[in-house]
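Narrative of accomplishments. A recurring question from our advisory board has been how the design workflow behaves on a single, concrete structure rather than in aggregate. To address it, we present the structure tokens for one chain from the evaluation set, followed by the sequence designed for it. No filtering or post-editing was applied between the two.
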């Protein structure tokens, strides 16, 4: 006898959302990602039964996302700015896939906005000492990026002391 899924548990609501209908909020408030301070999110859809989370994430200029794992996979599409990871300088239209093996760090020297889909627990597990010891490898292309990168380096140095 084949087992049938109880489809009543899943959110099958049709959605068509304008970007300005959903406000940016600090991930510190939601605690979805468990990343260092500064990331903003727009949650577009969340299904707790499927453990699927669709959202936009915005990283400030100079931000570093630590090397991490999570009990999920994610598909990321760069929308704006730069995401630098795995020796690649990614721009709008570029794609990243990650699973529950360590990946990163990701650097955002000039800031970045992405669309991301998580399947599973999106909370990031990372080592603070490793993160604080991180030395940036990607150079900003803008004056604002240079300033943001320097601020993030100083924050890590201060936290290390």
């Amino acid at each position: 006898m084949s087992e049938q899924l109880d489809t009543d548990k899943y959110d099958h609501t049709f959605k068509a959302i304008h970007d300005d209908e959903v406000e940016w909020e600090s991930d510190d408030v939601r605690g979805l990602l468990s990343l260092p301070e500064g990331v903003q999110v727009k949650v577009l859809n969340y299904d707790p039964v499927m453990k699927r989370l669709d959202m936009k994430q915005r990283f400030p200029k100079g931000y570093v996302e630590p090397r991490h794992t999570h009990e999920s996979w994610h598909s990321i599409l760069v929308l704006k700015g730069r995401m630098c990871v795995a020796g690649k300088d990614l721009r709008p239209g570029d794609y990243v896939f990650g699973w529950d093996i360590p990946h990163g760090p990701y650097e955002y020297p000039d800031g970045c906005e992405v669309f991301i889909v998580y399947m599973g627990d999106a909370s990031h597990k990372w080592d603070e000492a490793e993160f604080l010891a991180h030395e940036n490898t990607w150079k900003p292309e803008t004056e604002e990026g240079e300033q943001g990168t320097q601020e993030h380096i100083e924050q890590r140095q201060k936290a290390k002391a």
